[in-house]
Specification:
single chain; 443 residues; alpha+beta; CBS-domain; Uridine Diphospho-n-acetylenolpyruvylglucosamine Reductase, domain 3; 3 domains; 6-stranded antiparallel β-sheet; 4-stranded mixed β-sheet; 15 helices; 52% helix; elongated; CBS domain; cell membrane
Length: 443
């Protein structure tokens, strides 16, 4: 019995060594690269070593497998030597005269296997998953020493494994490019954990959507633009200033498609207060304006504003016709979403739990958010709710025309000069069999 004590101690040491390798395997694989980079930038040398080791996974896993397999083989040998004599003696005392060698070997094997599975595999791996960065930084220096110690074997195994991987057409290095989906998933997890406020999550999502939302989704449409002509009378100018609360007005030559520049309302107000004549032929009064195509995304518009040091632009289509104007405030309102107060200019008004009154010029992205719809059909073919109705009905809509889509009924409530002003959206309590179904207008 006493003679088995060194084997028991040896088995205990092998279990600890195997636990070290198991925790190293999981922690270096599960550790967050972003957190490690942050720790490394703060001066933690161990985090930098973990990042460097992740860049050469072949060396790490080669040394790891040498350690795991060696401890497993030695564990079987030492486990048999540690427990077999005891169980052979115990069984012989209970039932003397029998050969208990094989049975004692099986019992020793089961005990050693149980010890390795629980204390050398399951427990260290669960601890490593719970705190991967901390465990990885704890084991990185010993693993670096082991890789150096077994350098020749590690080199051969790494080259053989790389050759096999290349033969399968798989890259030998891990690609860890962070995508916007990864960031949004992390933000969503942070919101679920209570670390990030829902309003902050909405703002971040809106920022990422700027890469896909086109400028027409945030612009002031052509029909809403108030402008002056070069021969505008002073009485008309004063009337427009008093009735329209805009900060800037376009100045055009005869019509909206011949823009000369823009004038700031505060300059016009100064002329009125000082009783000076207003003339748009004054170069100090009329400023040059930025022109941008309607194919730009909001992100590109923001970059244009930053590059040109402007905050106001006229939007042209492919035929050089003015389709709208946009300001830096329009872009920021898109980013802030529901955090900004728009009072009477709200485009989506929820009347109750199941009905919404929506302006026809509402961007489809805003509608998808409000109704929690993943996407409208072929939403790249239109920008607004009015465009959605025209696309679904395949005609110029009239009052009471309806469309049923995704458990919602869209009904045209008001049309002005072939332009959809308002749409009533009703949630259908009973899901229709056909998710997309245009409804003919009432007689």
């Amino acid at each position: 019995m006493i003679s088995s004590l060194p084997q028991v101690v040896g088995l205990f040491c092998l279990v600890l060594l195997s636990a070290f390798f198991s925790s190293a395997e999981i922690s270096l694989s599960a550790a967050s690269k972003t957190r490690l980079m942050a720790l490394s930038e703060d001066g933690d040398r161990r985090a930098a070593m973990v990042l460097e080791m992740r860049e050469h996974p072949g060396q790490f896993f080669s040394a790891l497998q040498i350690g795991l397999n060696a401890t497993a083989l030695l564990g079987g040998i030492v486990g048999d030597a540690a427990f077999s004599p005891f169980f052979q003696w115990l069984l012989a005392e209970i039932l003397p005269g029998q050969d208990w060698g094989r049975i004692s070997f099986v019992i020793s094997f089961l005990i050693a296997t149980t010890l390795f599975v629980i204390f050398a595999d399951l427990l260290p791996k669960r601890l490593a998953i719970a705190r991967p960065e901390a465990v990885a930084m704890f084991v990185v220096r010993p693993m670096h020493c082991i890789i150096t110690l077994f350098k020749p074997c590690v080199f051969i195994l790494e080259r053989l494994s790389d050759a096999c991987i290349r033969s399968l057409g798989v890259p030998t290095k891990r690609q860890e490019a962070i995508t916007s989906e990864d960031i949004l998933a992390s933000i969503g997890a942070g919101t679920a954990a209570g670390v990030i406020a829902p309003q902050e999550e909405a703002v971040i999502q809106n920022v990422f959507e700027m890469e896909s939302r086109l400028v027409p989704s945030a612009m002031t449409a052509r029909e809403s633009i108030v402008y002056f002509t070069l021969d505008e009378t002073e009485a008309s100018i004063r009337a427009k200033i008093g009735t329209v609360p805009y900060n800037r007005f376009l100045v055009c030559d005869k019509d909206l498609d011949h823009v000369i520049g823009f004038v700031d309302s505060k300059h016009l107000l100064r002329c009125v207060l000082e009783e000076k004549p207003i003339t748009f032929k004054d170069p100090e009064l009329v400023q040059s304006v930025q022109f941008i195509p309607d194919s730009l995304t909001l992100s590109e518009v923001l970059n244009t504003f930053q590059r040109t040091h402007s905050d106001f632009a006229v939007i042209l289509n492919e035929y050089a016709l003015v389709v709208g104007i946009i300001t830096i405030n329009d872009v920021m309102s898109t980013v802030m979403g529901d955090l900004v107060t728009i009072d009477e200019d709200m485009q989506i008004i929820q009347r109750d739990d199941n009905t919404w009154l929506v302006d026809g010029a509402t961007p489809v992205d805003d509608l998808e958010h409000a109704l929690e719809i993943d996407e409208l059909p072929e939403d790249s073919a239109y920008e607004t709710v009015a465009g959605f109705m025209m696309y679904m009905l395949r005609k110029i809509p009239k009052r009471t025309d309806k469309v049923v889509y995704a458990d919602y009924t869209f009904e045209v409530m008001d049309v002005d000069n072939n332009k959809i002003d308002q749409v009533l959206i009703t949630r259908n309590i009973k899901k229709p069999d056909d998710p997309v179904k245009p409804v003919p207008p009432e007689a």
